[in-house]
Amino acid sequence: MTASPVDTRADVVRAAKELETLLHCQIATASDLSLLRHSISRPSESVGIYKHLCRPYDTPFCSRLRASFSELESLSKIFSFARDATSQLGEWCADQVWKDALTEEESLKAERKVERMFFRDQENRPIELLNKELARLREVKNIVRHWKFGPPTIEGNSLSPKVLLLHQYLALTFEKPTDAKCIIFVKRRKTARLLLKLLGQIGSSHMRPDLLIGSNLGDCGDVKISFRQQVITLMKFTKGEVNCLIATSIAEEGLDIPDCNLVIRFDLYDTLIQYIQSRGRARHANSKYLHMVEEDNKAHFQAVNDVRSGEQVMRKFCEALPADRLLQGNEAKLETALLKEKAEQKYTDPETGATLTYASSLVVLAHFVSCLPHGSDTTQQVVYTMSVENKQFVCEVILPENSPLHSATGPPASRKSTAKQSAAFEACIILRKRGYLDKHLLSTYHIQLPHMRNALLALNTKKSNEYKMRIKPKLWAETRGLRPERLYMTVLQLESPENLGRSCHPLALLTRTRLPKFPAFPLFLHADKTSNVLCESLPASFEVDVPMMAELTEFTHRIYNDVFNKIYEVDEAVMSYWLAPVIPGWMHYITKRNPKILVDWATVKFVHQNQEEFIWTPKTPHNKLLHRFVVDRFLGSRRFYSEAVETTLRPRDPIPEGSVRNKNKNFRKDILDHSVSLWSNSRKSQVFHEDQPVIRMYQIPTRRNFLDKMTEDDKKDDDKDQTMCYVCPEPLRFSALPISVVSMAYLFPSIIHRLESYLITLEACDLLGLSIKPELALEAMTKDSDNTDEHKAEQVHLQRGMGKNYERLEFIGDCFLKMATSIPLFSSNPDDSEFEFHVKRMVMICNKNLLKTALDLKIYEYIRTKGFLRRTWNPQGMKQLAGKDWNKPLEETDKHHLGDKSVADVCEALIGAALLSPNKVGEVANMDMAVQAVSTLVSSEHHNVTKWADYYPLYKKPRYQLAQATASQLDLAMQVEMIHDYHFKYPRLLRSAFVHPSCTFAAEKIPCYQRLEFLGDSLLDMASINFLFHRHPDKDPQWLTEHKMAMVSNKFLAALSVKLGFHKHLRSSTTVIEHQNRQYIAELEDAEREAKGARDYWMNTKQPPKNLSDIVEAYIGAVFVDSEFNYKEVERFFDAHIRWFFEDMFIYDTFANNHPTTYLHKVMELSFGCINYRLMASELPAVVPGGPVTSIAVVMIHDQIICEGQASSGKNAKVKASQNALKLVKGISSREFKHHYGCDCEGNTKQWVGQDGGRMEMVGTAI
């Protein structure tokens, strides 16, 4: 039976009927009230009378403060409560009011309230008034901080008679160790806090007091209690860890309070309900209930009598109920019990007729928020904040961070409920106008978001298309057609020629136009010998006449014929380039203006004059046979360097041991037989001299790709002991080319292939208007396998010798693309929310958009996907007359297959290459060219700048940034400047970086940190990746990505926020956030203390609140904006506060390896030795048209799908699939794995047998 009808102090029966009507219920009670005594024990009640309380007065300390600061409106409530406390609690408690109300945290709260009131009721008042009041507040805080508060005493006026009586009762109860439990009821939260402090000093050692008050946040000096803390306190009270609760009305009802022995009403009840409910807490046997009343206080005694008489009235009412104990009739009309609903605004959709009212808007908005995507560890909720303006309530509704609408404010209303509904109504109207609510007032967010989120390709399907591929640069074709009159020279030489093992002559590459400056690149000459190729492009040209051109043409053709066994039609007009030897010591003459003098014309003329083949005759002296380049007359692939005449051997002698033998086993009878490469029928027509000499020669290996490291077979062929042979000279011809020229000419196809690759990719850069370094241009456009983008996977169809692929450049280019597109979005869209930023940026940087641009520009033609093949190499433009594949047409383009994602990745790699191609010596990055690359490849109206300096003019300073800063905001800037040496020109911009989204805009007319956090996130990503990229030049993108996650993780940034003290300046409107932060900070401090200087101490904590990491990113964004988009300030912050943690990145290997996908790779490759596995993801179509799209990922082992994972994105689906796969393979041995999945990656799988010799059957697997 409820006591509320009695509390109405009107006709009880009428009040009960109205209550039944309002609640649509009926009141019942026990048929025999005396029976309740047997199940519910009732405490014995007594009245404790304390002496007269003195009138409220100011303590000496309070008098001093009032004399100086009585005009401060923000202190009026503190003055009032402290004055009342002298009467109710005593002087000691009154002074403690000031100590509690003006702590560092409470002072900040007071200052915020003053600022909020000032901006709400500003009415053009000068900001100096606010600054003056804030300065006065700080003056009071300093006085309180330095005041010496003495301990409480039971003599004099230190404690009031009321408190002394309470102390006497508690001293008796807890005089000795006891199981007794006590609840002290007070009216005010501050009273409870003061009593807790007091009892902590004068209470018994056997008393363990604690607070139980509501979770609502009160005024300054009020204690913050969360619901979780309430539950914990009650658990402690149940277990006896706490035996004395000082509680407000929250302990009267609503919570399950354990039975206790003693209930003390320190402050009397106001209603019968309070009396009955607080008395009901004393349900323990022999429990006591104490009414504390003042001596001769008629109001107190009347209150005790009223509740007792009211209880009698209620008892009589119950006894007068009908026999069935039910109250009959329902005469009261609902209209008389309820107020008519106020005529409020409505919105009706003209097409469907769906109606939005004030009342329904709460439900519509809640449903919309529930549709927002969120992780399993977060809860989406709407926050309503209330303020008072002109004696009316104004409500602002704040939506979650990932909502397209951040907040909305309703019109003033006389009731809080109406104000709340009006705010929800305004939010729904805005969402409907922007298209986030459909014509049925249902959320369209889940329809729009996947479309925008997946404004990328369905790339996980590995879709590919066939495209043209350039195999020769356009430069050759553009310059051919006429006999040249002038030539440019590029000198080709080895940096370490001694590693070739033979004399080597630099070659001049002569072209019609000057070639660009090429970087040095390595050639793999022998198994353990390499050398860089140096290419010196000379700026001046030289004139060539007809005889000179004839000599150069003959020399070049002689190389093609003798060295490569290919004969071309002689036509100077169609030749792309010529080759010529360079004089020794040419470097000394490089400063001469005429490069003509650098050509070794004597060697050129000698070759020109000896066009006829030199063949041995009996008259040939031995010295003409030595140290010559020799070619088999009948089989051009057999080539030799002659070493010496072996006078002890004769043509018909057996072939010496260790000599290279003819591949045809039928012709190995003797040295002469071995020397002739003709087949049986051809040999019959040939007669050779029996007395010719035998020459020891070195047979040149057939290895042709010097751009790649030697294979094991290549190493065998390259062994000089394995390539020594003894041959007779008559079947051979001796070339006029010197060995030093030939040894360099053998390298030429590999060299010119690399140079042509440089030229082709530079042509792509010219197409984009970018001056990228040749080595970076080639790296950005090199795809050396079918699955280049699958890091750490076994490469499929690997093309050897192509050099670096685009992976690393794509990694840093992707990051710069994210930052570069974030800046103009932030600058040009001041009204957009963080959500809208993300959507617009996603549309710009998505792979679909990059692919479209790449297809429009035909970038696919310039991508390099095929390695060098000597057999298919030919100089462009010349007609081949003889040699291998002489009858095949020479094409300028080829075909290759490219995945859509690969083409998009190349675009990002080009951005990375542009960034790493500085214009000036000493520069690390070329931001201007990277910005230009982004504009070209993104091709969006949101990014049309051409250099970094174009970004800042896009930014129009908002009003809040330009407004005059308050003293509090200036003080914030000063405190933060002491942490990081940067002076803010706009302190209000800095304040925005610390305003949590839960705060209302009306508080300081400053937006929350979400926009700055969006910008700062991309800036910090760039600084972190730039650090990793340059510090670890040999690490692949997978490693870089995994370790970058540590640098930008919420865990690290939250720890950094605490280390810098940023958390102290965070402004939020909910105690939950502050409580979560305090818990995390305490845990972090313990972790740092236990780590004893270890830099990775932050890893040893639970996941922190996200707001701590957000304010670090927001601060970086604020610094960037305040410094007029000076990126060096971002790097300076990184170097000052972040770099130290990551000087040794290898200590974070554990952090990186904990990622499920990374861990799966390591388990498969290291634990099981399996390389035939794949992790793939793709999108599933929506089951319901317009519904959300789901991504699915699968793990395949040896073409068998073992598990899957589904999520809203491919990335998260891969994580779930990896987690499921790890569960399957956890705990099984390598042998079990191989048996179950048929894995033979480390060799043939052995049959697995049990101890009995039979096949072991596997039971209980999850396959």
From TrEMBL:
Residues 602-736 form the PAZ domain. Its cofactor is Mg(2+). It comes from the Eukaryota. Residues 1155-1227 form the DRBM domain. Gene3D superfamilies: Dicer dimerisation domain, P-loop containing nucleotide triphosphate hydrolases, Ribonuclease III domain. Residues 361-451 form the Dicer dsRNA-binding fold domain. Residues 768-919, 982-1124 form the RNase III domain. Pfam families: Dicer_dimer (PF03368), DSRM_2 (PF24995), Helicase_C (PF00271), Ribonuclease_3 (PF00636). Residues 165-342 form the Helicase C-terminal domain. Residues 1070-1097 form a coiled coil. Keywords: Antiviral defense, Antiviral protein, ATP-binding, Coiled coil, Helicase, Hydrolase, Nucleotide-binding, RNA-binding, Zinc. Belongs to the helicase family. Dicer subfamily. This is Dicer-like protein 1. It comes from Stereocaulon virgatum.
